[in-house]
Amino acid sequence: MIVLIGGEKGGTGKTTLATNLIVERANEIGDVLLVDADRQMTASHWCSVRENNNISPRISNIQKYGQTLKTETRALSNKYQDIIIDTGGRDAPELRAGLLVSDIFVIPLRPSQFDLWTLSKIQTLVEEVIYLNEKLKAFVLLNQSSTNPSVKELQDAKELLKEFEFLNLMNAALCERIAFRKAAIRGESVAECNHYDSKAIAEIKLAYNEIYHPNEVINESSKVQQSTRNT
Ligand SMILES: Nc1ncnc2c1ncn2[C@@H]1O[C@H](COP(=O)(O)OP(=O)(O)O)[C@@H](O)[C@H]1O
Ligand SMILES: [Mg+2]
């Protein structure tokens, strides 16, 4: 399966999500590939730091840009059962090229940026691409959401997304947690990080299961969300 992490804005948590998901996936199925399609190369940097720190599982990583992203990723999908593509924060050729070969498009968004303008552009893009790639499914993941349970960001986001036929809001959401930043420094996932945070780990696992094991999640999501959002 090919999962593309992308969107219209920078700093929304795309690389954070891509790196955490790829570790979970590697732990479950073995050899997976992280394709860095962002010229800022943050995901590649994370991989080389990981390599230097000898962290296992090792994550295979390549950089691909422009149209070669599509052709090379398609070719590599014969070799790797699972590929995650991390793109930059704009409607670059990489985003379109990647979407043509992907099964799932995950758009992390911070609640403060959860504005109609961004969603309209993403919806239009998905609408265009889905004609050429009918299997594509698009999901919005709320990231850096408040840990204060009185802040009803998920409900607000749900309301807003009702207007967008092609964009589904994930039940999982990542809160603002220092563990996500600490893990990135050493090329780790939150599950591997010394700064242990069971809530961050649970949030990533929930997002992971929603993407890779959608049939198993259904009733678990509300339970985890309630418990992780109380701190
Ligand atoms: N849930 C989170 N909690 C705390 N910090 C986060 C979270 N998600 C992302 N960050 C931090 O925000 C910054 C931007 O995240 P990043 O994944 O690089 O975004 P993008 O790839 O979309 O540009 C990084 O410093 C990252 O560690
Ligand atoms: Mg990034």
Description:
- It is a single chain.
- The chain has 231 residues and is of the alpha/beta class.
- It has a single domain (2-228), classed as 3-Layer(aba) Sandwich (Rossmann fold), CATH 3.40.50.300.
- 45% of the residues lie in helices and 19% in strands.
- The protein has a seven-stranded parallel sheet with strand order 3-2-4-1-5-6-7, sandwiched between helices.
- The longest helix is centred in the N-terminal third of the chain and has 16 residues, at 14-29.
- The radius of gyration is 16 Å and the shape is globular.
- The N and C termini lie far apart (34 Å).
- The structure holds adenosine-5'-diphosphate and magnesium ion.
- Magnesium ion is lined by residues 14-15, 38, 42, 86.
Q: What attributes characterize this protein structure?
A:
single chain, 231 residues, alpha/beta, Rossmann fold, seven-stranded parallel sheet, 10 helices, 7 strands, globular, binds adenosine-5'-diphosphate, binds magnesium ion
Short recap of the structure:
With 231 residues, the chain is α/β, with parallel strands linked by helices.
